[in-house]
Amino acid sequence: YGKNTIKFLRLHKDGKKHFVKEVEVCAHLRLTSPQEYLEGNNSLVIPTDTIKNIVLVLAKKNGISSLEQFAIDICNHFMTTFCQVAYVKTYVQEVPWQRLHEDGVPHIHSFICVPDGIRFCEAEQCRNGPLMVFAGIKDLKLMKTTQSGFEGFYKNEHTTLPERHDRILCGELFCKWSYGECKDFDFNCIWKKIRECILEAFAGPPDCGEYSPSYQKTVNRIQMLVLSRVSQVQVIEVVLNNTFYNVVDMKNLGLTNDKEVLVPVEAPYGSCACTLGRKKFFEA
User: Fold this and answer.
1) Would the N or C end of the chain have less CB density within 10 A of its end CB?
2) Which of 114, 122, 164, 147 is nearest to 24 (CA)?
3) How does DSSP assign 35-93, residue by residue?
4) Residue 79: which of 136, 22, 4, 29 has the closest Cα?
């Protein structure tokens, strides 16, 4: 049991310059005894209102240096404070506020919410067990208008999809990775590096791009690049929900439409998902 959608804004002031972190937290506990379920005995139950207040107090006292460290702080607090807690899991996601710039100059106290993907993390721990940390990015919308195709696929009497060697590749990406057992990582730096890997693998070189023969290959390319460059990542899951575009037929309007005006196919849409990890992690 626990408390969901604990939302708050943490404001930090360094002289005239302000810093903000707006987050949403979910914190869930499992107790050493199920007596509240079986017997109606609430003597060990930590009220969810108390859970909410603890999260807010930790934000006030510790600040939020990174989402991962804040999730770790929450786990550590419940494990060290309450002997009846057998397991704790914390989920934290961030509202994507970025500092405003005017003529290249960063503003000291103004921000803009930029929908370029939502950062999130999870931390979980069993009593007498290791602290596990996961992180990720979701709702990241990506598109490239060429250097993508889909050919040579299996066909039977139900196949109506034509082969395409040049199409738009567009989708909403969800990516989650595991650090394995928690260590003293620079979580902010690692997250930014992984995001850069995702964008690079999706798009390819800026002057020419890189051909994608399928959504599946793009997913794998993202995973392989992250694992090759970020040694702290042990397992990475990527889900790419696809958005397809159809060329509008303008013949009745007396116009030729050479893939210049397209409309999105709202539903149904495709989805590709894969989880990839290091061999030593699975052997362990």
Assistant:
1) C
2) 122
3) HHHHT---TT---HHHHHHHHHHHHHHH--S-HHHHHHHHHHHHHHH-TTEEEEEEEEE
4) 29
Q: Which two tokens stand for residue 267?
A: 């539903």
Calculate the CA 180 to chain-centre distance.
17
Looking at 168-278, list the stretches that DSSP marks H as alpha helix, in order from N- to C-terminal side.
187-203, 215-229
Q: What letter would DSSP give residue 163?
A: P
- 119 a known binding residue? no
Sketch out the chain's domains with CATH numbers: 2-129 (3.10.270.10), 140-281 (3.10.270.10)
Alpha-carbon distance values, 62 to 58, 66, 77, 90 (Å):
6, 11, 12, 16
> What is each CA distance from 9 to 24, 120, 281, in whole angstroms?
9, 15, 37
Q: Would you tell me the crossing angle of helices 187-203 and 215-229 to the nearest 10 degrees?
A: 140
150 annotated as ligand-binding: yes
Q: What is the pLDDT of residues 101-154, one digit of tens each?
A: 999 999 999 999 998 999 999 999 999 999 999 999 999 999 999 999 999 999
Banded pLDDT at 92 (limits 50, 70, 90): very high
Structure tokens at 89: 């899991």
Query: What is the SS3 assignment for 254?
Result: coil
Q: Are 51 and 143 in contact, with CB atoms under 8 Å apart?
A: no
> Could you tell me which residues come within 8 angstroms of residue 183 by beta carbon, excluding any fewer than 6 positions away?
232
49 is in an annotated binding site: yes
Name which of 244, 238, 225 is nearest 150 in CA terms.
Answer: 244
The answer to the question of whether 243 is labelled as a binding residue is no
